[in-house]
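Handout, page 2. Input:
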Amino acid sequence: MFCQQDEIFMRRCLEIARHGIGHAAPNPMVGAVIVHEGEIIGEGFHARCGGPHAEVEAVRSVRHPELLPQSTLYVSLEPCCHYGKTPPCTELILKHRIPKVVVACSDPNPQVGGKGISRLREEGCEVVTGVLEAEARELNRRFFTFQEKRRPYIILKWAQSLDGFMDVARDGSEPESYWITNDALKIRVHQWRAEEPAIWVGANTILNDNPQLNVRHAAGRQPLRVACFNPLPAEPERYRLFDGQQPTLVFVPEPHPQAENLEYCVVPFPERAKGELFPREWLGMILSKLYERQVQSVLVEGGRVLLDSLLSAGLWDEARVLTGSVTLRRGMEAPTLPQQPESTEVVQDNSILYYRNR
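Output:
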């Protein structure tokens, strides 16, 4: 059983774990807190993949390590028990004779999967589990989806006008890129891009908008750019997707020479009419390829066919719909969602609707 104090310290674990967003993947975000006689004496979080785990950082931060044998370790995810890029955290806990460990939830990774908890208990360590478990799973929903469904966590995003259009009616006279939302939401989108390891768009988005698909208005790493072409466009060098400025993965039906920061992956494309949705099996194949590359989550920014295909197939986890203050009157209609938004955020004269596929 656990008490209110356990929840207080576990909430702190979850709070500091969030510092790893955008950097820890494909590892989970994890926070750890060491408590002695009701006082926090050490904290740590997993800052980046390949770096020290949260438990290691927490132990390192303790100024008086002689207190560890009389302390409790709180950690938001089950300690690892296998050798990977770093040694097992279970052995660190046992080495310092920490007598009690409080865990939010078990690790779905088959290499761990309860083995870390069992290892500690076998050596006489008291282990309490399930403290703020739902909150811990929510924090690492990308990681849990990646491990349990063997595909990236999928976030759909699009912007639409007040009257429900996501693009102007294109007749050749419109600008290459047309912004529907305000500058504040532009910054928010770039923050989102920095938080996810990959961004995926449809071929028409590249051809019509020629986007950079990078992080310019926020701090963070550049995402992997993903697109699918059948066939590859004439003069691809005209499009920023092929500029070699950041890692880019292009799915094509035929081999093409690889270039710096540009990888072509050959996949069979389905026969379909223009504008027809992609079949679920084909989408699953693309997601499997991303899974093999350890892409834990992907932000899908369009276009309409790709968004509708993923929605129709049920292959989505979140949707973020940005609504601007403009009225277009005609153009490409935005996708529709079958449920009500779980929350709404107003940003100046624009809004964001947040949906979840439960």
